[in-house]
Amino acid sequence: MIFGGVDLAAEARRTGIAEVSDDGELAVQNVSVGADDEALADLIRRSVKTGLDVPLGWPDSFIRLVAEHAAGEMPPPLSTDASWRRSIAMRTTDMAVRDRTGIVPLSVSTDKIAYPALRWAGVEARLRTERIDVARDGSGRICEVYPAAALKCWSLPSRGYKGKQNTASRVELIAQLTRVFPALNWNGHQDICASDDNALDAVLSALMAYLVHQSLAVPPPPEVKDIVLLEGWIWLPETDSPSG
């Protein structure tokens, strides 16, 4: 079985993809940076599950605000304070990630992460025409993941490993990941992951897809099942260690 991982950037040149297989041995099979839309679609077609490091949807409150504002039908809020703005900017899953990890995901409504999300919306539409199940709640062939938050759940460094200047930090993080996933065979792909954080995040995304498939990640609570089909749900590890 192949599990895909995508660190989705707005542009192909910074988009990392990875494949992790589970055929008697958990192993990293392919890692590359520079994935165009066809490469993304092909990975998802071939994988049992693909972890996507990108917001899969926008907040329901934001969608309604934009529609009502465009139609001139937006009711006046009691206040436009920070709390109200946060309720428009953040998704249900963003708040769940904050509550568990203390990390606040970037807002797909107000931050630059919207650019990769726009790209994903286009790829999602393409896959839907092929009748591939791209349900945003993670029940189909894809699931939304957040490598930094997963690392935090495992008590591993979730900051300071990105950028060309932090190669040494990535080398150490890879060593720590090997202790968390003791059965993982990197197949020599440590070098590209050490040299490019987009590659490392792609591998982390694939590992999270594997955990989702193995029911070792936290699903959306029943009470939010409808809204996460619209907004997306970030899957986090069920426990502090994949092995326990």
Distance from first to last alpha carbon: 22 Å
Beta-strand content bin: 5-15%
Task: Give the count of helical stretches.
Answer: 10
Low-confidence region ranges: none
Pattern of helices and strands: EEEHEHHHHEHHHHH
Alpha-carbon Rg, integer: 18 Å
> How many strands appear in the DSSP assignment?
5
Which oligomerization state do the chains in this entry correspond to? Answer: single chain
Largest sheet, order of strands side by side?
3-2-1-4-5
The rough form would be described as globular
Number of domains: 1
Describe the sheet with the most strands. 5 strands, mixed
Organism: Brevibacterium aurantiacum
Pfam family, one: DUF429
Protein name: DUF429 domain-containing protein
Describe the protein's architecture and organization.
There is one protein chain. The protein is of the alpha/beta class and 244 residues long. The chain has one domain. 43% of the residues lie in helices and 12% in strands. The protein has 10 helices and 5 strands, in the order E-E-E-H-E-H-H-H-H-E-H-H-H-H-H. The protein has helices at residues 37-46, 60-70, 82-89, 92-101, 114-129, 147-153, 167-180, 190-195, 197-213, 225-231, and strands spanning 2-7, 16-22, 26-33, 49-53, 142-144. The chain has a 5-stranded mixed sheet with strand order 3-2-1-4-5. The longest helix has 17 residues, at 197-213. It is globular. The protein starts with a strand and ends in a 13-residue tail after the last helix. The relative contact order is 0.21. This is DUF429 domain-containing protein. InterPro entries: DUF429.
